[in-house]
Write a structure and sequence with these properties.
By secondary structure, the protein is mainly α. It folds into two domains: 96 residues, Rna Polymerase Sigma Factor, Chain: A; 65 residues, Winged helix-like DNA-binding domain superfamily/Winged helix DNA-binding domain (Arc Repressor Mutant, subunit A, Orthogonal Bundle). Helices cover 77% and strands 0% of the residues. It has nine helices and no strands. Helix 7 crosses helix 9. Belongs to the sigma-70 factor family. ECF subfamily. This is RNA polymerase sigma70 factor. InterPro entries: RNA_pol_sigma-70-like, RNA_pol_sigma-70_dom, RNA_pol_sigma70_r2, RNA_pol_sigma70_r4_t2, RNA_pol_sigma_r2, RNA_pol_sigma_r3/r4-like, WH-like_DNA-bd_sf.
């Protein structure tokens, strides 16, 4: 297991930066990919956003203050990049974010990178009916099992608000699954 403080030191030192960044990629690439994928839904979009996330991390590592865990900081960047990506794409296509996500979910069955069954597809459809913040909270808690404390750092909000959002999201998803 890599020590986070050592990794940050190596990332901010010119001589060790490249090797440290490879370690960082190895450590967090897959987890960040799946977090992003849950937001943007398609593989190609998730790949693009992941690449942008790591570029931003690399460019801004010297401004990382260490007030949160490195992963929380990266998760926040990934979340913001994914949301910005959706906003840009929906603007270009002149549709709402909700419509964009619903279209992506309806295309999942033909996506060679999606290997879920009908139940997982139905869950994805239910998640897209949630407001964006509830989607984020639900995905981070349900799929990634992120603690409310860490989630509060990532989303810059209170733990209480996150618990309420998660509870509402679960209720809405249950209702959706019962009626569809």
């Amino acid at each position: 297991m890599i020590n986070e403080k050592d990794l940050i030191k190596r990332l901010t030192t010119k001589a060790t930066q490249e090797a440290a960044f490879k370690d960082l990629l190895q450590l967090y690439k897959e987890r960040l990919y799946w977090h992003i994928r849950k937001i943007v839904i398609t593989h190609d979009d998730a790949d693009d956003v992941l690449q942008n996330t790591f570029i931003k991390v690399f460019k801004n590592i010297n401004s990382f203050k260490g007030e949160s865990k490195l992963f929380s900081w990266m998760y926040r960047i990934a979340t913001n990049e994914a949301i910005s990506f959706l906003n840009k794409k929906s603007k270009i296509l002149q549709v709402s974010n909700e419509t964009l996500q619903q279209q992506a979910v309806s295309n999942l069955k033909s996506d060679v990178y999606f290997n879920g069954d009908d139940i997982q597809l139905k869950l994805q459809q239910a998640i897209t009916t949630l407001p964006q913040k509830q989607q984020l909270v639900f995905n981070m808690k349900y799929f990634d099992n992120i603690k409310y404390k860490d989630m509060a750092n990532i989303l810059d909000t209170s733990e209480g608000a996150l618990k309420a959002s998660y509870h509402l999201a679960v209720k809405k998803i249950e209702d959706y699954l019962k009626t569809h």
